Amino acid sequence: MTHADIETQEIIDRYLLGKLPSELQEQFEQHFLACADCLEKLESSRPALGLIAASRVSPRPRWFTAPAWGMAAMIALAVWVTAGRSPAPPRPAPAAVEAAPEPLIELSTFRGGGPARGLRRDQTAGPFRLLLDLQSLDTYDCYSVEIASEQGAAVWSRGGLQPASDRALEVQVEGLPLEAGQYWVRLAGFGSAAGPALVREYSLTVQP
Amino acid sequence: MAQIEARETTGQTALYESFGRGLRFYFSHYLQRQDVEDRVHDTLVAVVFALRHNHLQEPACLPGYVYTIARRQVAAYIAEAVRNRTESADLTAAAGLRQGGPNPEEQVIDKQQREMARQLLASLPEIDRQILLRFYYQGQLPEQICTELRLTDTQFRLRKSRAKKRFEELVRKTLRRERLFSAFLVRQEASPEH
């Protein structure tokens, strides 16, 4: 693996995002173990990419970024300012960055232990979303997600899911609530040839 | 390799200098921070042992050998963690206890990081922020981003590269400032007359 390959194939970013195929990943890991240049770039990029992921900020939808909408908004603002009317009811101005609606429970790939992610029992009564980290996992054509009780009995499931990216799978859960307790979220993958495979088990805690 | 075989300490020092930083990064990609130094040490001890016992003849094979040992360390660590988790779950169930969510300290750290990220992203030009979030957070394909943001492929690559560099610089400055601030607080606590 040469530095030209690493540059042109954006290997560093793809590695940090967990998007490298396993063969390339192994080659790159072996390379950077003793490569000061690549380590410099990895160490510089990791906090930035980590912070982008930690922001949980969704980019604005397409219609918002369209120039026509921007112009219309400016005209509307100018009309409102010159007219001197007080806005009622006050509508929040579009923030510079927009948070995704809650509750969104992020379940990350197990990396040597960590706190179980959870939510309150009352939050499970309405729809809630699970965001399952797919990084470092094998990819499949489609997935199914099952929530199982601590004893292993399935309490909710949904199949035919396809992730928007190879980094995470978002699934909406509804038609519950879950009683307080410990649950397992099981992610199964379906390939074109092989049967379903259990890809990952995530821990989910429902608090009283 | 010859120095290590001859049990000269300079050989071990050179090994640490060559692979220590890379191993630290490799382990930190997979393991929790508090376990990284131990695993770096264990890996290099295993490599030194192998060299002293002539398990490795070709110097060119050394990086591959170090990598193999490191991968085994990660695999062993994860196997151990999974076993501990299973035992811990059994104990928790037996005692009628429930594991809670993130502890208060982790919640505070999460919140601070999220806030910092939002502020730094908000300080970027809109188009740069859009590109970073779409590409690095949502995992959108360049073609989709180009279409929706009305960019050519070249414009996208240039802007993405510049935006990432700018954001990295902002993060670096902010983290440096935070570290300086932490160091200042530590000094303040250490000197009671202030």
List keywords for this structure.
heterodimer; A: 208 residues; alpha+beta; 3-stranded mixed β-sheet; 10 strands; 31% helix; 29% strand; elongated; B: 194 residues; mainly alpha; extended
Order of helices and strands of chain A: HHHHEHHEEEEEEEEE
Structural class of chain A: alpha+beta
* Gross morphology of chain B: extended
- Strand order, largest beta sheet of chain A: 4-10-9-6-7
Largest sheet of chain B: none
What is the share of helical residues of chain A?
Answer: 25-40%
List SSEs of chain B in N-to-C order: HHHHHHHH
- Number of contiguous helices of chain B: 8
Average of per-residue pLDDT values of chain A: 72
Q: Poorly predicted ranges of chain B (pLDDT <50, ≥5 residues)? A: none
End-to-end separation of chain A in angstroms reads 53 Å
Protein architecture, described:
The complex is a heterodimer of chains A (208) and B (194). Chain A is 31% helix and 29% strand. Chain A has 208 residues and is α+β, with helices and mostly antiparallel strands. In chain A, the strands form 3 sheets. In chain A, strands 4-10-9-6-7 form a 5-stranded mixed sheet, with no helix packed on it. Chain B has helices spanning 2-5, 9-30, 33-52, 62-95, 104-122, 126-137, 142-149, 153-190. In chain B, helix 2 crosses helix 4 and helix 6 crosses helix 8 (153-190). The model of chain B has no long low-confidence stretch (mean pLDDT 79). The chains are: A alpha+beta (208), B mainly alpha (194). Chains A and B meet through helix 3, helix 4, strand 1, strand 4 and strand 10 of A and helix 2, helix 4, helix 5, helix 6 and helix 8 of B.
Write the topology of this structure.
The complex is a heterodimer of chains A (208) and B (194).
Chain A: H1 3-8, H2 11-16, H3 22-32, H4 36-55, E1 57-58, H5 62-65, H6 67-83, E2 98-99, E3 104-107, E4 117-120, E5 128-133, E6 142-149, E7 154-161, E8 168-173, E9 181-190, E10 197-207
Parallel strand pairs in A: 3-5, 4-10
Antiparallel strand pairs in A: 1-2, 5-8, 6-7, 6-9, 9-10
Chain B: H1 2-5, H2 9-30, H3 33-52, H4 62-95, H5 104-122, H6 126-137, H7 142-149, H8 153-190
